[in-house]
Structure prediction request, 259 residues.
Amino acid sequence: MIRQFLRRHLPLIALFMLALPIFGWLRWQPQAWFAAQLTENNLSEKITYATVEKSFPGLAVTQASIRLSDGTQLVFDHLLLQPAMLTLLSGKPALFVRAEREGLVAESEISVADEKLILNGANIQADAGKLAAFDPGLQLLALKGELQLNGTLQLRLADGMPLQGDIQATWNQAATLLLPVLQSGTVHASLLSKNDEKFAPMWMWEIKSTPQSITGKGKIVTNGTNIENWLLRGNIHLKGDEKPDGNILSGTLGTPRWQ
Prediction:
């Protein structure tokens, strides 16, 4: 979801990074500027909003609705866009973005370098039960609990392809129909990119939970630009499981298989 949004709106993000200087901010008319940028980049029919106001030293957008090419709409109650002040001193400007919607708060510093879109200090906090508002398919999993995700991520600027990352996630009071054994425990997960010139780039994942003692690890092998087609391999071991190697995960991210 986030990757699709970034990939489709990279030109707009770049414009924000160049067009939000502090000097002249008091005379800046954000409503007219914002509308002009959407029109010039053919985004006026894809992005709608209620208001655009100054929020020193950037701007705040309310009721922002973003229509993706597949017809899906992402709706945020509030978007805050500001230049990351410390990065201005280093000569490598970045944009601070904070998005809010009922049950979700996400923020990160976004910069562009070497044909890559870089997300530093990414932090997402969400009510797992409300994530179905972004992806209706999640309703089938009956997710519950509180999610927190932190880390860094690099995307290829041309198409939004994930290249590198180090992500840590915590799921408190976790519950889902996919793993009934969780029983409101705490799940810790990590995802780390590993590039090897001899093999296709891959991501190493690891998961563990308390107090149910669910453990697992494996890898995700990239297979084109569509993440749903990436290959999934690994094992999940449940406490009391008779299988010494646990349950085998295979297939793809879009169609995982549990054996």
User: Anything to note?
Assistant: The first helix runs from residue 2 to 8. Helices lie at 2-8, 10-18, 30-40, 85-90. The first strand starts at residue 47 and ends at 48. The chain has a mean pLDDT of 79.
